[in-house]
Write a structure and sequence with these properties.
The chain is built from 23 helices and four strands. With 499 residues, it is mostly helical. The strands form two sheets. Strands 1-2 form a two-stranded antiparallel ribbon. The relative contact order is 0.07.
């Protein structure tokens, strides 16, 4: 029986080329004599073929190579100030997108690292525009994949410009920004870039807690250009740390970037949308060919947002801020800020607090409640249980659920993103109230707060501890915040201690 050592060198070379991932490829070459010998015998052709397998077609390789070469060129300047702008611009424009350009080992490493980022982002993009049921592999065609990856590598280059302290001033002027960013690209290529930036902005927002995303939504195209694809990928993979990965745009810089931000907004008008599906100008084509017909319809609001729609078939891929670790942020601002309810909720899910330093509660009591994580708890299971909450009867919870508009909706019904968010936000506190009583029966002995989940004084430590807030208040949805606050403050001092 033949062994790896006895296989012909050309077969061993094919094995190397077929390996999944550059890290595995390097480990194989460095740890196996037979593969190391095969690599040395055909080093140039093996590296070229492995690069093609990882990156894509010639256009992608050309874009990736130009990005790596310009990055190396900027690095060689050692942040020396640019005295002669025309000379510098000519030097940058001398780098052409050419797949035949040879790469240094460092440039090759950079291309391979970015290839992995492109592959992972493409899977997320495929879920948004190609097939909502995309799992671990992209469903884009070869041509669609090449266009997406080419745009990502070009956005890598834009982020390199912005993150360079010597090149950043050139990004502030239209005269130098346009040649740097879009000089050699066709209108279609610019269209693709701005479409991908728009998608990146929405993806970044979905990595953040819902309240944070809404407050900052106007800035995210600029944030994504500042951050670049790598930071977006890290934010997507680790949404609990998304704020740390996504670069902040200083206000002073934003003022100077006013014209550029207007450029982005102007180009986004080309991408005028119905929901999140792009309306493509007649003289351009979208990265992903739009499906024929009206598309899938939300069962709640009848919107047709393309592939950005969910039922039980793709609940495993809900937005990243709806993962188990971030679900506490959907409990509502006041209930999520209740240190007692928050602690029990996270323990029940079996996850760490995504924002452990967010709550600053004075005089908080130690929580001595025995509560084990619920077994086999997943987002699809929770969404199923949210839709199955009982809404019949005369209890406050049943009356509350009757008003939210999701009665009769099941896991087989499609929900667009706004409706999915509304459903989770309105029903999660009720779900938690029932789960808490089942897991900690002693909680039934606590009095219910008159204002329930909508109580604005849950930040008072003793009030949060003494009362059950995972419930519906007497006048849910019609609270007088001023009277409510005064009533509760009459029971507690400013220090949070009961009188």
């Amino acid at each position: 029986m033949p062994t790896l050592e006895t296989l012909p060198p050309e077969i061993r070379a094919l094995i190397l080329v077929a390996l999944d991932g550059y890290t595995t490829f390097k480990a194989a070459v460095l740890s196996c004599h037979a593969l190391h010998d095969a690599f040395n015998a055909s080093k140039k052709s093996i590296l070229a073929q492995f690069l093609r397998n990882a990156l894509g077609g010639d256009e992608v390789i050309a874009a990736a190579t130009r990005t790596a070469c310009i990055e190396a060129h900027l690095r060689s300047r050692n942040n020396i100030a640019i005295d002669n702008v025309p000379e510098f611009m000519n030097g940058i424009q001398a780098f052409k997108e050419d797949a035949s350009v040879s790469q240094s080992p460092r440039e090759y490493e950079a291309c391979m690292a970015r290839a992995h980022v492109c592959e992972e982002l493409e899977v997320a993009y495929s879920r948004s525009f190609k097939d909502r049921k995309t799992d671990e592999r992209s469903c884009l065609t070869v041509a669609e994949s090449d266009r997406f990856r080419m745009a990502i590598h070009r956005l890598f280059l834009i982020s390199i410009y912005i993150q360079s302290i010597v090149v950043l001033p050139l990004c502030l002027s239209v005269a130098t920004r346009v040649p740097l960013f879009y000089g050699e690209f066709s209108v279609q290529a610019v269209f693709d870039l701005l479409h991908i930036v728009d998608w990146m902005a929405k993806t970044a927002m979905e990595c953040l807690p819902p309240g944070t995303a809404m407050r900052r939504q106007g800035t995210y195209p600029l944030v994504c250009l500042f951050s670049g694809p790598l930071r977006l990928y890290n934010a997507y993979m680790h949404p609990g740390q998304a704020d740390a990965f996504l670069r902040k745009v200083d206000r002073r810089v934003r003022r100077q970037f006013g014209a550029w931000e207007q450029d982005i907004l102007h180009h986004r008008q080309i991408l005028s949308r119905t929901g999140v599906q792009p309306e493509v100008p007649q003289d351009m084509s979208s990265v992903v060919g739009l499906a024929a017909g009206p598309g899938l319809e939300c069962s709640k609001c009848q919107a047709r947002p393309g592939e950005r729609i969910w039922d039980q078939q793709n609940w495993m891929h809900v937005p990243r801020n709806m993962r188990l670790e971030g679900l506490v942020d959907w409990m509502g601002y006041h209930l999520a800020g209740n240190y007692y309810e928050r602690d029990l909720f996270l323990r029940y899910l079996g996850v760490e607090d995504p924002h452990p330093k967010q709550l600053r509660i004075r005089n908080a009591r130690q929580i001595n409640v025995a509560l084990s994580p619920a077994p086999d708890l997943t987002i699809p299971r929770i969404l199923t249980e949210l839709l199955a909450l009982p809404h019949t009867g005369n209890t406050k919870e049943a009356l509350y659920l009757q008003r939210d508009g999701f009665n009769g909706v099941t896991g087989n019904d499609l929900l667009c993103l706004p409706c999915l968010e509304d459903m989770v936000g309105s029903r999660l506190p009720v779900w938690w109230g029932s789960k808490k009583l089942a897991a900690v029966p002693d909680e039934a002995n606590k009095p219910k707060c008159l204002f329930g989940m909508e109580c604005t004084e849950q930040k008072i430590a003793d009030h949060a501890y003494d009362h059950n807030h995972a419930c519906v208040g007497n006048d849910f949805g019609f609270l007088d915040g001023y009277k409510e606050s005064n009533k509760i403050k009459g029971m507690y001092t400013k220090a949070g201690k009961r009188r």
